[in-house]
Amino acid sequence: MKTVTEFPRKVVEFPDMGIVMPDGCRLSARVWMPEDAGDDPVPAILEHLPYRKRDGTIFRDQLTHPYFAGHGYASIRVDMRGNGDSEGLMDDEYSERELQDACDVIAWAAAQPWCNGSVGMMGISWGGFSCLQVAAKQPPALKAVISLCSTVDRYADDIHYKGGCLLLENFGWASTMLSYSSRPPDPAIAGGNRWRDLWLTRLENQPFLLPLWLSHQHRDAYWKRGSICEDFSAVKAAVLSIGGWHDGYRNTISHLVTNIQAPVKGIVGPWIHKYPHYAAPKPAIGFLQEALRWWDRWLKGAETGVEADPDYRAYVMDSVRPARWHPERPGRWVAEQEWPSPNISIEAIELVPDGAKPSIVASPQTCGLAGGEYFPFTFGPELPGDQRPDDALSVCFDQPELTEAIDIVGAPEVEVQIAADRPQANIAVRLCDVHPDGAAELISYGVLNLTHRNSHEFPKALVPGEIVSARVVLDQCAYRVPAGHKLRIAVSTAYWPMIWPSPEPVTLDLSKATLKLPLRPLAKANEVSFTEPEGAPPWATETTRAANSERHVDRDEKTGTVTLSITDDFGELRDLEHGLVHGSIVRETWAIHPDDPLSAKGSTHWTQTFSRNEWLVRTETFAEMRCDAQNFILSGRIEAYEGENLVFERDFEQKVLRALV
């Protein structure tokens, strides 16, 4: 990445600008703007997050926000209420209070003497969700958004549920937020003993969100609120949507470009859950330059040509050897002037034709361990590995060896006719690239709770032995399968630890199956290009503990239980400007017996540490999830230490009734 030190306008920074909400709650903002903005007002760009501007997102903030400010914007990074250095309490993700706070910050920014009245909003993940949901509320000053790694559907395409199946990331993310929101304000910002009062109040009121999320197992009003797919026309601001093929949120770009009536463009690269100017696998792109083109057009009225950009720009990844991490993905950029594209044709491939003997699918509960993380973000061993171990536990339909390469661009689908021997059953479908020596790389996957085959809102139990029709939609992809390779469609009844298992072992009779494959004419070279990445001077830090990620799969030969153990040590860094030292570690275990879905158990343990001179605090959070046939059984704990003294402890225990459809 090229570091830019000279900008058209000189930048000043305000590390703690207070923004008081109508109810009196003070939000803390870090603001960068041109030094002369008071005389020559500029548009504002808002990023509104719970992830702590002081130490959480500071790496990317340093690259990004001063860059925008130097090009004539007031760039505002706000800690949401109940997090970081802001007052108040957080009760849930994307609550009405949170979204109204963002609308109030937008109105506040537009009214400042240094702002010209136009505001943009941006963000990745939580911030990407938020800016779309805020745009649907149509605050008058909001003219444009840039949303990365986000969703249009909080139920069907977030970390909670997928295809009506319970994602284990539901538990994982609830555990993460329990840890993240347990962290204290910085005394250097909050001052005196006020930081401690804010911290202890926050801890006393900190929710463990998992029971709430599990109490809504169908697509009810709780999930519809904030899902902009309920009314795409509500979004009037211009939308630039960006995502990555190695991220969990790879479908949103297509959904937005297909459905938004306001100006909208989409870009999908080979990246994990990161901003694309520093993301991997490479190639990264000049995201900040693309963002400026967007902001300059919609916030300043400049003619930057963004309207003429292709609707959908995607990186078609070449076939590679399976690995848990790829620093780079060879391939090429393709461009579709309109999306859905008339250049995409659908090839139907019969897997189980009419009249054929049914294929019997009955997978061990451990099938899925090669699947990788839902949204990788550590630049570590989180990508899908060689699929052969999972293929051995699935029913596989191998296609003939390709005589010519093909480009798959879009969302593959598999239509099935199927009978189950239980009233509830899950099905997982993987599309794989099989190398000549048998190695198998995951192209895309989809899962479906078969009781949700017609509706996520009104599921219907299966009648054992009755044949039903269902459609499994796999995730969007852009992938070249070379000549000499084969396509494999692998079908299983389990996908652990991506989804929680059915309450009973399941056998499926697959009597008909058809793959619908979206094919694009073979791209010969890059059809569009991007500038090389740029950024403002990076965050100045000293490493006091190096980061490290590890994954281990162990089988207890006595009990048969298989355990996936993950340790992500994010390291510890000292900020060389304000001196805060922050470190964090998460340890996860996911255990299950191949023959017993009720043996499923997940546990997490997070450690967060903060220090400066003689000040030292630490939080430890623990969470566990298991089940019986009728209930999810949940527990959690927060411990907070000042020095070595335990100053707070709190336990969470709850059962949540398990929906059996």
UniProtKB/TrEMBL annotation:
PANTHER family: COCE_NOND FAMILY, PUTATIVE (AFU_ORTHOLOGUE AFUA_7G00600)-RELATED, PEPTIDASE S9 PROLYL OLIGOPEPTIDASE. It comes from Mesorhizobium montanum. The keyword Nucleus does not apply. GO terms for molecular function: hydrolase activity. NCBIfam families: CocE_NonD. Residues 292-540 form the Xaa-Pro dipeptidyl-peptidase C-terminal domain. This is CocE/NonD family hydrolase. It comes from the Bacteria. The keyword Hydrolase applies. Keywords: Hydrolase.
